[in-house]
Write a structure and sequence with these properties.
This protein is 35% helix and 23% strand. Strands 10-9-8-11-12-13-14 form a seven-stranded mixed β-sheet. Strands 1-4-5-6-7 form a five-stranded parallel β-sheet, with helices on both faces. It has a two-stranded antiparallel sheet with strand order 2-3. It has 373 residues and is of the alpha/beta class. It starts with 7 loop residues before the first helix and ends in a 14-residue tail after the last helix. It is globular and about 65 Å long. The protein has eleven helices and 14 strands.
């Protein structure tokens, strides 16, 4: 309806006010978050189901299959046009197949006009290949390899790949707009991306587990099995108001530890080994033996990502651990059946809250120091 006024200046003012109100309404509509859809890859459907249960929504329909030549085929079973899409896929199991499946799912949602696609990757694949620091000569099986290492000129870099950067590029090119992960092997991996990355921490859930399950935790000492985890253990020790120790390890080759030196006093204390991941478990088993030799009364191991490949389960069964505690960023049901020492911390509530806060445009920094209930 046209604005009528005897005063032309007043009329122009009313018209301007009406236009500003209309523009404000349009901006409000455009800034409103779109509807949410959560899809699961095949790597960890249990975690995805736990996330949507906590969010109070249903898991999106998706069909994943393989052709006879083992190519991956993904069919999104519902409309994602204008939706805020979250795809849950962990870097576990058949890592290469699961990574390819994630890339295809991201691309399928993106070209189906999804408003935003967020990859929820609890355990980031290839995170350990984050820098070029390997010497030539491989495992030094012969004298020529040893000589090559001895004569290596440090002004030349090795030919080791930075695969974590490659994975970051692949996710970005596939169409991911945002990454949510937990306890990256090196937090600097966030810098490999040109899109936002939220690196959640298992530390709040670890602190909660320690206080609830270790009665004598005030007489404990937090131990890092290598120098790279110093920052992690000092943070936990400070929040528990206990001491910390470090173990310096030297390797002859990959997955084989040569020697360990304990820095700190663990005598008559409960030692709690804390690390971001355990693969073959050679490091933490050697560390546990070293702690018992130094006088620790009990040894616990708390790990974010329990990969447990190769001889890991048999090593844990034969080791002196009271318990080996892992989160469910990687499926652990089979490992827990094979090894009664393994216990699991559920972190689905942290991912669910991160998804909810991201969807609503809220800060996720609360999750860095608190467990949502």
């Amino acid at each position: 309806m046209p604005v009528r006024s005897a005063n032309p200046i007043r009329a122009r003012s009313l018209i301007r006010d009406n236009l500003e109100k209309q523009a404000g309404c349009l901006n409000l509509i455009h800034s409103r978050m779109p509807n949410i859809k959560v899809f699961s890859g095949t790597s960890h459907p249990d975690l995805a189901q736990r996330i949507v249960d906590r969010l109070g929504i249903d898991l999106g329909k998706v069909v994943t299959k393989k052709f006879s030549n083992l190519e991956t085929c993904v069919e999104i079973g519902e409309s994602v046009r204008g939706e805020d899409v979250y795809i849950v896929q962990s870097g576990s199991g058949e890592i290469n197949d699961n990574l390819m499946e994630l890339l295809i799912m991201i691309n399928a949602c993106k070209i189906a006009s999804a408003s935003r696609v967020t990859a929820v990757i609890p355990c980031f694949p290839y995170a350990r290949q984050d820098k070029k620091d390997k010497l030539p000569g491989g495992e030094e099986k012969d004298e020529r390899a040893k000589l090559a290492k001895k004569n290596y000129d440090w002004k030349f870099r090795s030919r080791a790949p930075i695969s974590a950067k490659l994975v970051a590029n692949m996710l970005s090119v596939a169409g991911a707009d945002h990454i949510i992960t937990m306890d990256l092997h090196a937090s600097q991996i966030q810098g490999f991306f040109d899109i936002p990355v939220d690196n959640l921490y298992a530390e709040p859930a670890v602190l909660k587990w320690i206080k609830e399950n270790i009665p004598e935790w005030k007489n404990s000492i937090i131990v890092s099995p290598d120098a790279g985890g110093a920052k992690r253990v000092t943070s936990i020790a400070d929040r528990l108001n206990v001491e910390f120790a470090l173990i310096h390890k030297e390797r002859k080759k990959a997955n084989e530890v040569a020697s360990m030196v304990l820095v700190g006093d663990v005598k008559d204390k409960i030692a709690i080994l804390v690390d971001d991941m355990a693969d073959t478990c050679g490091t933490i088993v050697h560390a546990a033996d070293r702690l018992v030799e130094a006088g620790a009364t009990k040894v616990y191991a708390i790990l974010t990502h329990g990969i447990f490949s190769g001889p890991a389960i048999s090593r844990i069964n034969n080791a002196c651990f009271e318990a080996v505690v892992v989160t469910n960023t990687i499926p652990q049901d089979g490992h827990m059946r094979d090894c009664p020492k393994i216990q699991c911390i559920d972190v689905s509530m942290m991912f669910a809250e991160a998804v909810r806060r991201t969807h609503n445009g809220e800060s996720v920094s609360y999750l860095f120091s608190n467990v949502p209930y």
